[in-house]
Amino acid sequence: MDHKSIAPEKRASIGARRNPATEEAILEAAEALLRESGLAGFSIEAVARRARAGKPTIYRWWPNKTKLLLDVYQRLKLKMEAVDTGAIEEDCVQFLLGLFAYWSAGPGQVFRSIFAEAQSDEASAAALRDYAANRRQHSAKMFERAIARGELRADSSPVIAAEVIAAFAWSRLLTGRLDADEADLRAVVRQMVGGMRA
Amino acid sequence: MDHKSIAPEKRASIGARRNPATEEAILEAAEALLRESGLAGFSIEAVARRARAGKPTIYRWWPNKTKLLLDVYQRLKLKMEAVDTGAIEEDCVQFLLGLFAYWSAGPGQVFRSIFAEAQSDEASAAALRDYAANRRQHSAKMFERAIARGELRADSSPVIAAEVIAAFAWSRLLTGRLDADEADLRAVVRQMVGGMRA
Amino acid sequence: MDHKSIAPEKRASIGARRNPATEEAILEAAEALLRESGLAGFSIEAVARRARAGKPTIYRWWPNKTKLLLDVYQRLKLKMEAVDTGAIEEDCVQFLLGLFAYWSAGPGQVFRSIFAEAQSDEASAAALRDYAANRRQHSAKMFERAIARGELRADSSPVIAAEVIAAFAWSRLLTGRLDADEADLRAVVRQMVGGMRA
Amino acid sequence: MDHKSIAPEKRASIGARRNPATEEAILEAAEALLRESGLAGFSIEAVARRARAGKPTIYRWWPNKTKLLLDVYQRLKLKMEAVDTGAIEEDCVQFLLGLFAYWSAGPGQVFRSIFAEAQSDEASAAALRDYAANRRQHSAKMFERAIARGELRADSSPVIAAEVIAAFAWSRLLTGRLDADEADLRAVVRQMVGGMRA
DNA sequence: GGGTAATCGAGACGGTACGTCGTGTCTTTCC
DNA sequence: GGAAAGACACGACGTACCGTCTCGATTACCC
Prior knowledge:
The structure is a homotetramer. Chain A is mostly helical. Chain A contains nine helices and no strands. In chain A, helix 5 (88-104) packs across helix 9 (182-194) and helix 6 packs across helix 7. At the A-B interface, helix 1, helix 6, helix 7, helix 8 and helix 9 of A face helix 1, helix 6, helix 7, helix 8 and helix 9 of B.
């Protein structure tokens, strides 16, 4: 099962410093396991086996499973770009479509695992909170632009809007309902941003 | 609600049928463990120990951890009633305040655990989906009443509104941010329902 | 696996007294299980299943597993007949060949189980000792006849000879080496009885 | 022989190789349990508890209960030396006397357990067969020496003689009759080796 | 001939042990 | 001093039996 794509080459020490190839192999293996079997298949033993690494090597650099999970996610999360179509409703729909497509391709499983972990591990929860706040700031820009061009009311809150749209996306991810078509999303978005219109 | 830490009395078989006292003791123990230490402390062994039950007795009635989890939650959720203040915004705010208070009192930890479990177990995910759809139908009624009395536009969707407000509540629960004050919630609600106003 | 030959008919109570059909079915099932899978497959649960009996019914009549084992053995052990060819060596060879064939057909497994049980249960050990002494007296007759006809020395001991030949047979049974051919046995017998010759 | 009831000190790993202290503690605990309560009290769980070892540690080195049992016995039997009095009959008597005394001191209980185990577990049976064959080769030397010095006939078989004498000893052990006096044993031996005399 | 009493199958119960898996720590050997 | 290797104590997993229990039903016996 997990012998599908084991790192073939064996990496020895490269002296008294961290071997980047090892770090890379470990993160790669961890991500692959998460994508393939989710949090259930994600164990330090399995990662070590697949990355041809020793368990202590993993524990040297990541104090526990959760930290490794978070690092896997860090590597992943810098891809999504905000769109700017000039119309806020269209921006939101494209944002959701892009996000759902991105998640469906694999990273969604990793993100789900972070959520799962965060429910019992406070460090993960804090990391997730930080990340979410950060993303909120980022996608709030979409609404700020719409306010600036007079499409949305000046007294509406970009941050609240960003939170609500993120919450909606998460709820779909976490309940395994990423297969929404554009029309559905458009209906949701229209209702969500309707109250902000100038 | 009196938390005797370990079930003291010993329960024998009451014949060739399920012993309700045993079922009760197991659910009680499971709930207590979840409230106290979350999903991490929730193991079949621990439940058995605390309920003074044999492991096989648990496995006889609950095929896996998740089913037990769901049963614990089912047993819990008989409280929440929809409010009807006559103003949709007020309804939503009271709904969220009530929900957050309810979750904060303990059940939130159980619900979080179900979400965590659902991220790697498809059966749990399906159960969670069913439950969520059910709740959605239920809280959609709040918006239907507002449409009926002409407060909200006739072409707005109660189900979408219910999903969005639930998604928001979940996102706060799952990221450990249930400590919102009324003003914050009111701002969020105003923006969420603004687009539905007649 | 064990549904091979379950007692088909269901036996109800026949009033306030022991049902002989039940006792018979239980002993039958126990023996069959022992023959098929040895002591490992011999569990009260399995016996009850196979005999279509309730566990308490078994425990009512046999205080524990060992007693049931002994009863199974009691039913079995009255079959072997001594041969008399007129030549002691031939008698012994035929005795061993017959015994090995008899054991190989099934009863050997039951006997082995008694030996196993006797190593940790003193009651079984005592029963086994009694039985062995009895058998010794019985097969000593073979040597007495040989002494009587002058084939063996008058000062040789039939009981010792019986013990030695039984010990040899047991050692083969208990180490699973019943597949000896006649020539091998003859060599052993010749050496065993050689010292007794007139 | 000082029986500290539970190994007090905790043993960690000593690197990627077997820890002899752990092995020792496990064998020690296993032996103690066998001596105290026989096969009935001998469970992997109990051994692990007493030796302060993890169950997986035991299973890592001993694939099953039986192998552990055999190793306990191996560790025990470093005493018995073949005697060489120059007379085969005396050799045999001393051999049996020594063996019975040795067994009576404790190891007999262990060996009985091995026999019990071998009656339902084929792996144990095979191990026991191997061990027995080995011992047979070893004690056959006693007879080879006697043949060499012309005391026994050249065409007699040392291996058969070794098997027969071992079988006799086993039968006494397994039926709990180790309390034979020298005269009895001498009578048995005389009859057993009589047929081999030159 | 109706009540009582012991029997029967059935199967749930609290336990103990099984053998496997994963966690996070530890140490040695090689580079 | 980093890295692979893998042993270690621990504890949860899900399963099998143990011996005890309580039921509801089925008779025979006694009054």
